From TrEMBL:
Domain AB hydrolase-1: 33-294
Top EC class, one word: hydrolase
Pfam family, one: Abhydrolase_1
Taxon lineage: Eukaryota, Fungi, Dikarya, Basidiomycota, Agaricomycotina
Protein name, as recorded: Proline iminopeptidase
Source organism of this protein record: Sparassis crispa
Length: 313
């Protein structure tokens, strides 16, 4: 990854009566524009996210999605849907006077990248995607109900702990009740348990620093509440919508590279493979010694190679 840099522009953009977004621009003012779409939803951006791009060649745009990171108010699910975020991306593009840009996103960021590209294909120069996630019921069931639990039974016990036995047949629904409780202690305990489950399973080798992030009340609350809100509403899309042929046909012409960890148990490789089957024109690179995180060495290396490859488009 490239050395750390600081933004040369930061700002706030009011996108509704409820939400105001934090955004920043770094790199080369005259460079090829790229927008970074963070995962979660609800996680927010990190300064290290700038380092996927050559700062001499890219005009790098990062922003925190509704309710996440430095955007305000934190953890609010009202007026917070996939299609609100797609509109927000366009608002930022127009604000910065960008005609077309590269779109980079992993995990939920890959879902949002696909949704945005399918809505505005004439605004996308390329797609660089990681850990493909399309919010199908089968994907949500695998991670939150019956799949990853078989590989991480110890972490799964901690995830089950806040939920009574009688409610465990639908963990997303059970967590929804607690993440929206009027009791702050109940809400925060649920948020930390939900967040810890993902942090404990995101890397091939569990990262203690990533697990420690869960202890940040504000971060955990936003991450868990917004994720759960999107997942209980199935991404505000038809099941499998992002993979439908008529949707892929809208973006088939866009140069696209996908990096996927072989041992990703958050967004398993079967979804990236399903995308490749309906869209054979994409370049799919499977990293044999990685899980889900963009920070894993093999994944980070290929993502930077991809941004270098597309920098002159």
């Amino acid at each position: 990854m490239y050395p750390p840099i600081e933004p040369y522009e930061t700002g706030r953009l009011k996108v509704s009566e409820v939400h105001t977004l934090y955004y920043e621009v770094s790199g080369n003012k005259e460079g090829s524009p790229v927008v970074f779409l963070h995962g979660g939803p609800g996680s927010g951006t990190d300064a290290k996210d700038r380092s996927f791009f050559n700062p001499a060649k890219y005009k790098i745009v990062l922003f925190d999605q509704r309710g996440a990171g430095k955007s305000t108010p934190s953890a609010v699910t009202e007026e917070n849907t996939t299609w609100d975020l797609v509109k927000d991306i366009e608002r930022i593009r127009e604000l910065l006077n960008i005609d077309k840009w590269h779109v980079f996103g992993g995990s939920w960021g890959s879902s949002l990248s696909l949704a945005y590209a399918q809505a505005h294909p004439n605004r996308v120069k390329s797609l660089i995607l990681r850990g493909i996630f399309t919010l199908r019921k089968s994907e949500l069931r695998f991670f939150y109900q019956d799949g990853t639990s078989h590989l991480f039974p110890d972490a799964w016990e901690d995830y089950l702990a806040p939920i009574p036995q009688a409610e465990r047949h639908d963990m997303i629904l059970a967590y929804h009740a607690r993440l929206n409780s009027v009791d702050e202690e109940v809400r925060l305990n649920a948020a930390k348990a939900w967040s810890k489950w993902e942090m404990a399973t995101s890397k091939l080798y569990v990262d203690p620093k990533q697990l420690a992030q869960v202890e940040n009340d504000t971060w955990a609350n936003a991450f868990a509440r917004i994720e759960n809100h999107y997942f209980i509403n199935e991404g505000f899309m038809r099941d499998g919508q992002l993979l439908e042929t008529q949707e892929i046909d809208k973006i088939r012409h866009i140069p696209t590279l996908v990096v996927q960890g072989r041992y990703d148990v958050v967004c398993p490789a079967t979804t990236a493979y399903a995308l490749k089957k309906v869209w054979p024109e994409i370049e799919l690179q499977i990293v044999s010694d990685a899980g889900h995180s963009a920070r894993e060495p093999g994944i980070a290396k290929l993502l930077v190679e991809a941004t270098d490859k597309f920098s002159n488009l």
